[in-house]
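Aim 2, interim progress. The first record below pairs a target sequence with its C-alpha cells.
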Amino acid sequence: MLGVRRNRNGLDRKKKVKRESNPIASYETSYRESIDQPERFWAKVAQMITWAKPWKRVLDNSFEPFTKWFVGGELNACYNAVDRHIDGGRGSKIALIHDSPLLGSVRKITYFELHEKVSKLAGLLVRLGVGKGDRVVIYMPLIPETIIAMLAVVRIGAVHSVVFGGFAACELCARIQHAEPKVIIGASCGIEPTKVVNYIQELNDALTMSTHKPSKCIIFQRKGVEIGDLDPQRDMDWEEAVKNVESAPCVPVEANEPLYILYTSGTTGEPKGIIRPVGSHLVMLCYTMKALYGLDPDDVWWTTSDFGWVVGHSYMCYGPLLYGMTSVIYEGKPTTTPDPSSYYRIINDYNVSTVFTIPTVMRLLKQTDPEGKYGAEYDISSLKRIWVAGEHLDLTTKTWTERIFGVPVSNHWWQTETGSAITGTCQGLKNVCEDEGLTTGLPFPGYNLKILRKDGSEAEANELGRIAIKLPLAPGTMSTLYKAEDRFVKTYFTRYPEEIANTTPAMLARVITNAR
C-alpha cells in the first residue's frame, strides 16, 4: 500500500506503509501463557512497574466475580507515573505538551516540573484533610492541571472521580451526590471555538442542587479568560493556595484499593461508578504501551479524547506517564481551530509517532479536506501508526486515512469497564496479521474470549453471537461498582451451560452487529 507523506517544502513523496513491530515475544506464546498460567505470566509483567511492598499472591479468584490481583502488594500510582522517572535520571524529559490554538499557547512540562506541581497540590489536599480512601471530584477541561489534579489525589492515596467538562450542572450534581467528595477541584472555564464555557457557574449550580457539600473547592483560574467570582467561604484559588504548602510524599496503597471512580451511563441509563483497582490497572496499562501499541519510551504519543472518558484516564494520563513518554494534550478541534491543518501541524511540531483517536475525526477531515491539501506544508514523517477505537471503522475511512497520512490504521476494541483493550493486533509482540483489514484483532493477553449463541453453545467461525469473557477477568478490569456490588453482578455476569463455560460466570460484553 502506498501512502502520501508531506514534507516541509510541500512536496509529496511516495512511501510504502510499513507494518512495523518490536517483538518481545510471540503473540501466541504470550496469550497462551496468560490464560493457562496467569500467575506466572502477570508476575513477570508486573516487574514493569515499581512496588513499595511485594505481593503475597498474584491471583485470588476465590470469590468470583470479585477477582483480586497482586494481593498484599503495595504501590503508588503517582510514584510510578512521575517520581520513578526522576529517580531514574529522566526528570528533565518533557512529560506533557499542551497545545491550545484557541489561546495561542504552547506549554511544555518536564517530569521535574510535573513532580513539583503535583506534590504541592497534594500537600494542599492533605492540609484540607483529604487522606487515603477519600474521594475528590475533578471538573476540568483539556489542560495539564487536570492531570496534575489526578496525580495529586492518588499521590496521597485518595480516589479521584473526573467528570467530563461537557456535562452541565445536573449531571455534575448526580456524580457529586453519589461520590460524596471531601474536596472538588475545578477550573474557571473551558474554551470552545465559538464560546467560553463557564465551569464555575456550572459547579455553583450543581452544588446548589446537591445534598452533599464538599468542605472546599480548589479552582484553577485560567489566565486571559478570567470568569466569575469565587465563593470566599468555599473556594480557593489554586495558585495562591499552594504557595506556602509543604510538598506531600507518596502514600502506598494495597493493590486492590481503588485508583479512581469513573461514571458511565453506557447503554443502561443510570450512571454506574466503575471502580478501577490501582495495582493491576497500572500493570496492564504499562504492558499495553509496549505489547499492544509497540512503543518506545522515546516516542511521542498523542491521544485525542477528554479526561472525563476512560481513554483520557488510561491513555492521556496514566499509560504514557507510566511508560515515561512525552504526551500531547491538544485543546482544539480537528477542522475548526483554525482549519483542517491542525492534526498535521501537531504531528509536525512535536514529532508525534503515534496517534490514538476515533474514526469520526478522520471522517471529518475527509469531508472537509478530501485530498489532504491542508497538510501539504507539514512534515509528518515521524508518524508510525494511527490507532482508532470507540466506534465503527468503515473501509472507506480507513483507506483514506492510510493514503493521506501514509501509515497503517489499527482498530482495536475495549470499553470503560475494562480500562484497556480486549482485542487488538499487538504491534509490540510478533504480529499475527499481515493485513489487518478492519479487524479489531485477536484477544489481548488475559482475556479468555468465546463467541456464544443465545443457548450458550459455541458459535462457528464467522457466525454472529455474543462475546463472553470467561473469569477471571484480566488485570485492570473494573473490580466492582461503587456502592452497588449487587448491580455489578446483575449487570455484567451470567452463567452459561457447564459444557461451554465449566459453570464459570462470563462477562457479557456486547452482541456482535457487524464484521469488524
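The second target in this work package is listed in the same format:
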Amino acid sequence: MTTFEIKEEFMLDGEPFKILSGAIHYFRIHPDEWYHSLYNLKALGFNTVETYVPWNMHEKEEGTFTFTGFSDVVSFIQLAQEVGLYVILRPTPYICAEWEFGGLPAWLLEKNCRIRSSDPVFLTYVRRYYEELLEKVVPLQVTHGGPILMMQIENEYGSYGEDKDYLKAIKQIMEDCGVNVPFFTSDGSWLATLRAGSMVEEGVLPTGNFGSKGKANFAELKKFHESYHKKWPLMCMEFWDGWFNRWGEPIVTRETDELVEALKEVLEIGSVNLYMFHGGTNFGFMNGCSARGTRDLPQITSYDYGAPLDEQGNPTEKYYAIQKMVHEMFPEIVQMEPLIKTSFALENVPLTNKVSLVSVIDEISQKVTSKYPQTMEELGQAYGYLFYRTTLQKEMDNQRLRIIDGRDRAQVFVNGEHIATQYQEQIGEDLFVSLIDEENQLDILVENMSRVNYGHKLLAETQRKGIRQGVMSDLHFMLEWDHYCLSFDKPFTIDFSQEWQAGQPAFYQYRFTLEELADTFINLQEFGKGIVLVNGHHIGRFWHKGAQQSLYIPKGFLQKENEVIIFETEGKFAETLRFTKTPQYDLVETSLYER
C-alpha cells in the first residue's frame, strides 16, 4: 500500500516526492471529457490532479445530496487513479474558485448562523454534509489504496477570518469521518494571512498561493514554517497561470515565456499545483462574482482562465511550453503527446418558434402570492430569475415608482411596455410612468447575476436576491404580489403557440440535425442578454457586454436531433443561429452597467 508523509520533504513510499499537480474541477467539465483532461495532465509529465469540492453542487437543496453526473466526484477520483495520477482533494465548506457564493449553498442564507465560523449551527450543517461526502471519498485515500494524498482544511481562510476554533472543528469533523491522510491549509504567502489561516500547532502544513516571484514568496513561507521550528516542504498550492474574466472587461492574458520562467522558479525550490490546468465552464448559473465597493461584478460563463488547456480541453501554447520546460528540468519524467478534440461549425440554423415570457409564465412556473414581495431565498429559490407582478393604480398622470432594496438587475414593465432596466447601484432611484388606465399591470423581472465568491460580502444582505423590501408608488409600499420563480433547474414545456411581443423577454427555439457529434460554440452576438438551453441542459449566461460572445457546447450535450432554446431578456434575437469551431470574443461595450 502506498504511503504519503510530510517530513522535510514530501515522502511517497519513503522516497522524496515533488508534487507536480494541475487543477481540474470535475464540476466545470462534462463527465464524458474527464478522461481527456486527466490524460493530458499526465501527458504533460505531471503526477497529481487537484480539485475543489463545491458544497452547493452536492447539496443544492437542504438535506438532498447528489453525487452523480457533474457531481460524481468518486468517479472522477477513480478515473484519475486509472490514468496514473494522485489526487489533492479540497473538500472545504467554502472554495472561492470564482464559483457562485464560493461554493456555499444558497439555502444557508435563510439559516440563523454565521458562515465560515465556529457557530455551532453552521458547523451542524457542515457535519451533515461531510458525513455524506466523506463517506464516499475516505475509501479513496492512499491509506486505503486510493489516490488521495492529502486534503485541505478550509480555503484561504487567512484572507477572511482568524477563528481557529472553526478550523479545529473542521479538522475534527473530517477526522471523525475517517480522514487520515495529511491535512494542509492554503493562503497568501505573507505573514498576516498565514498567521490567521494556518494550523501549524495542529500539525497542519501551510502552503502558499501566488502566481509569480516564487523565490520571494517561498522565502516568506519558509520563514513562517521556521517561526514554529518546522522544516516542512514548500508548496505553491495555487500557482495562477492565468486569470478569470468579468463581463464588460477585456479578456485577461498572460504571456507564455513569462509564465514558464515564473513556474520554473517555483519548481527549482518546491512543489506546485497549476491553477488552473483546465479551467472549463461555469455551466448554469454557477459563475462567481467579484466584490468591488458598493457593486458586485459578475464573472463570465467561460472559465478558460488562460490555462494550459483551453475551455474545450485542448492544449494551448502554454501547454507545450510548460511540457518542454519540465522535460529540460526533469528529463527522467515520462511525457506523451496530448489528446486533441475536434469541433464543428454550422451556419444558418433557422428560428423555429418564439414566444414571450408573459404569455407562458403561468405554464412554466407556479404562482406564489403574498402581501409584500418576497426574495428568492424566502421562496426557496437559489438561482435564476424572479418575476413579480401586481396591479398599479393610477394616482397621477406622471406616477413615481421606486424599487426599494433589490438585487441584482430589475427590468420594469407597465402594461407590457418596458419602462427601465436598473442595476444594483441604480435600484432605488425614481422611475416615472405616464398612466392612462385606472388599473395597470406592473411586471418586474429580477435577475440574480450571482453571489460574491470571496471577502466580507459573503455575510452581506446583498447576497439575498430579488426585491428585499418592496416597491413604492409615490410614498407608499404597494401590496398584493404574484411571484414566479424561473430557476431553469428542472425540465419544463413551453407552449410556442402563444403570443410573442417585440421588446419583451422571450423564448426562441431552434432545431437542427447532426450526423456526427463533436464540440461546438454557439455564437450569440445578435442577442442581448440571457441564457441558453441545449437539449434541456443549461449551458450558461450570455451578455452583449462581452468580451465573451459565444458559449461552449460539449459534445456530451448534443444528439442527432437537437433543440436549442434561448431565453433572451432584451428583445434582441436572430432569425438564424451560427455555430463555430472556436470561441468568439469581442468587447462590445466597456461599461458594465448602464441606466
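Residues 588-595 have pLDDT under 50 and may be disordered. This observation will shape the mutagenesis plan for the next reporting period.
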